[in-house]
Amino acid sequence: MIEAQSAGHAFVGHAKSAAVRGVLFDDGAAVATVLARRTSRGGAKGMFAGSCQVLDRTVEVIGSDLAEWLADPKDNARLGDF
After folding, report:
1. What is the tally of structural domains in the chain?
2. Is 77 helix (H, G, I), strand (E, B) or coil?
């Protein structure tokens, strides 16, 4: 993880984000790099969600983005919210 932000809360609105950077290696050689970021304002039920829940969801979605990228990795990929 290169960054995680958790500003706001249910009463004033969430402002959450997380970002990761990764390198895919094959036999010790770097073959592709990736940068992924996701942001969330809490969604439709944000006023009922805690900060950790909202931030956790951004990380889960990044995990899904990375799994999809690993199926067909492209070098210098930028995934999610850029």
Report:
1. 1
2. strand
